[in-house]
Amino acid sequence: xxxxxxxxxxxxxxxxxxxxxxxxxxxxxxxxxxxxxxxxxxxxxxxxxxxxxxxxxxxxxxxxxxxxxxxxxxxxxxxxxxxxxxxxxxxxxxxxxxxxxxxxxxxxxxxxxxxxxxxxxxxxxxxxxxxxxxxxxxxxxxxxxxxxxxxxxxxxxxxxxxxxxxxxxxxxxxxxx
Length: 177
Prior knowledge:
By secondary structure, the protein is of the alpha+beta class. It has a single domain (31-175), classed as Lipocalin (Beta Barrel), CATH 2.40.128. 18% of the residues lie in helices and 39% in strands. It contains three helices and 13 strands; from the N terminus they run ααββββββββββαβββ. It has helices spanning 2-7, 11-26, 133-142, and strands spanning 33-37, 42-47, 51-52, 61-66, 70-72, 75-78, 83-92, 102-111, 117-121, 124-128, 156-157, 162-167, 171-175. Strands 2-4-7-8-9-12 form a six-stranded antiparallel β-barrel. A two-stranded antiparallel sheet has the order 1-13. A hairpin with a 2-residue loop joins strand 5 and strand 6 (75-78). It starts with a helix and ends with a strand. The chain crosses the membrane at residues 12-29, 133-150. Keywords: Membrane, Transmembrane, Transmembrane helix.
């Protein structure tokens, strides 16, 4: 019986129709859905590496990791673990007479699920070391002039330091349905 079906002239047509129908049903292409990420949306992130005022330079790029999924209408627009980029805008290492070091980082953008950059605002991170100016001056005047060469502490931002930023402008993100 199978031989008769196989030798039938309709077998090739039926096989072709079955192949086309299977391919059409299993490989449907979904159109991406446009979701608007509103400005002002909070984005929680943390530093990946330590940042030190002694080694940092102005213009240096610093990376942050997004802590949790950012969703709009139950669609993930920024995935947890995405990398946000910031830039060091001011830095100074510790100096004599107890002057502390400081560092300021401006968080610029993060990558959305569709690969585009989402710009961030209200996201400056400022940290300064310990000021030992009073100690240096008092000891320098009362005990020994060499205490005037006492340096303040460098500013250090440890890995895992948590920062909040917000989305700068309404951004349209393409997400899968």
